[in-house]
Amino acid sequence: MKFDIIGDIHGCYEELLELIALLGYEESQGIYRHPEGRQMSFVGDAMDRGPYSLEVLRLLFRMQDAELLNYSPGNHCNKLYRFFKGNPVHVNNGLETTLEEWRALPKTEQRHFRARYIEFYSRLPLYQKLSLDLVVAHAGIREDMLGRPPSNGIASFVLYGDTNGKFHADGRPVRRDWAKSYNGFPWIVYGHTPTEEPYLINRTANIDTGCVFGGALTAYRFPEKTLVSVPSRQPYQPDRFHRFT
Ligand SMILES: [Mn+2]
């Protein structure tokens, strides 16, 4: 099986459709299939901050209904799930934009969307083991975590990354670069931390090129290990991009 792994979308529906077309997928009744049988995979964080979070999610729901979805959640997916379940969450960091779209729906559609999202999320794996040599996880994963039973430690790593509980003065978490010391066999494709260019090191690929911050939406083709991207239509916010050193 060959895969096209797509980075953090964050509501950038127009760029997503453009990228899917550029990758050669064809649409029929809202479902996207590749003539050569390739499959899409997503690193998560489909929603929040960008303009069309609900449309992105509806596309993912249809793919899930057609049993063609390879998707594992990011921290934004997890927070929306907790909100819809009625748990107390801070409505910030882009969740407010998704909720604004959702609250604009008629009440019955709101209820239906919430129930569909809860079902969507509960069916997702923590990370995707797509083949012997390919794993997709939102913020990455360490090799020693692969194959271990799910735990809070693994869930936290996969959703939020390799953080040490410390924060910069502006409130951003201090991010540790697990990929720099990764020496495992499977390729790990992930997102979560926006960078100006895909960050490729060892057998890892961070493909969050900050589409919602005016960068690009990027796909990593596997096993070819080539990159395909489309430019963002959002305003460029240079201070939102991380620099791995
Ligand atoms: Mn994220």
Give an account of the 3D structure.
The protein is globular and about 50 Å long. The protein has a single domain (3-238), classed as Purple Acid Phosphatase, chain A, domain 2 (4-Layer Sandwich), CATH 3.60.21.10. It is of the alpha/beta class and 245 residues long. It has helices spanning 13-22, 53-65, 75-84, 95-103, 107-122, 152-160, and strands at 3-6, 26-28, 31-33, 39-42, 128-131, 134-136, 163-167, 173-175, 187-190, 199-201, 204-206, 216-222, 226-231. The chain has a five-stranded mixed sheet, with no helix packed on it. It has a four-stranded mixed sheet with strand order 4-1-12-13, with helices on one face. The structure holds manganese (II) ion (MN). The site of manganese (II) ion has 6 residues, from α3. Residues 1-194 form the Calcineurin-like phosphoesterase domain. This is Metallophosphoesterase. InterPro entries: Ap4A_hydrolase, Calcineurin-like_PHP, Metallo-depent_PP-like, MPP_PrpE-like, Ser/Thr-sp_prot-phosphatase.
Summarize the structure.
This protein has 245 residues and is α/β, with parallel strands linked by helices.
Principal-axes shape call: globular
The CATH architecture: 4-Layer Sandwich
Order of helices and strands: EHEEEHHHHEEHEEEEEEE
Assign the CATH superfamily: Metallo-dependent phosphatases
Strand portion: 15-25%
SS content category? alpha/beta
Kindly, what is the distance between the CA atoms of the first and last residues, rounded to a whole number of angstroms? 34 Å
InterPro entries: Ap4A_hydrolase (IPR050126), Calcineurin-like_PHP (IPR004843), Metallo-depent_PP-like (IPR029052), MPP_PrpE-like (IPR041780), Ser/Thr-sp_prot-phosphatase (IPR006186)
Protein name: Metallophosphoesterase
Pfam family, one: Metallophos
Domain Calcineurin-like phosphoesterase: 1-194
